[in-house]
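[audit] Reproducing an earlier prediction to check determinism. Same input, same settings, fresh worker. If the C-alpha cells differ from the archived copy the diff job will pick it up downstream; this log only records the rerun itself.
[audit] input (191 residues):
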Amino acid sequence: MRLFREKGFHATSVQDIADAVGLQKGSLYHYISSKEELLGRIVAEGMLGYAHGLEQILSRPGTARERLERAVRHHVALIAENLAIYTVFLREWHTLEPELRQRVGDSLRRYQSLFERTIEEGIGRGEFRPVNPRLTTMAILGAGNWLCHWFFPGGRLTHEDIARSFVELFLRGLDAREVEGNSVPATKLSP
C-alpha cells in the first residue's frame, strides 16, 4: 500500500512490492496473483469502510441536520484515520479492470446517494434551504476526500478539529434560518 501511495499504481512494479515485503518475486505470487489483485483488495477495504457504518449512522433517529452532521464527522474520521488506504483508493480505483471498476463506481454512487437523500429530506422538512443536493454532496465528500493530500496525523489540527470546521461550514451554509439572498437557484446548479 505504501508503494502505491508514494509511487502510484502504474509506477510500482511487482518486484518493488516483493522487495518491500522481503520476498522473492516468485514467492509473492503465492500470496497474490498480480498487483491488480492487490489494488483490488485495497479498494475493497476502502469501499467496506465507506459503506460500513454510514447507513447505521443515517438511520439513527434525529433531524436531517443531526444525521448529516454525524455523516460528515464519519467521513472525515474515516479518511483521516486510514490515510494510506484512502489515498490509494481515491487515486487508483479507476485503474481497476472494468467489471470491478463498475462495482466500485456503483458503491460510490450509493454512498453519495445517502448524503443526497439526507440533504433532500432536510430541504423537504424546511431544515435546509433549497440547494442542489448533488452539488452539495459532492462539495462535502470532495472536501473530506481531499484530506488525503494535506492532512498529517499529529499535525496542528486533529481530524476532530477538521470535522468540527466542516460541520460548521457546510451545515451553517445549509441552514434554512440563515440569511438568504446570495444563493443560486438549485435548478441552475444541476451537474
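[audit] rerun output stored. Observation attached for the diff report: The two ends are 33 Å apart (CA to CA).
[audit] end
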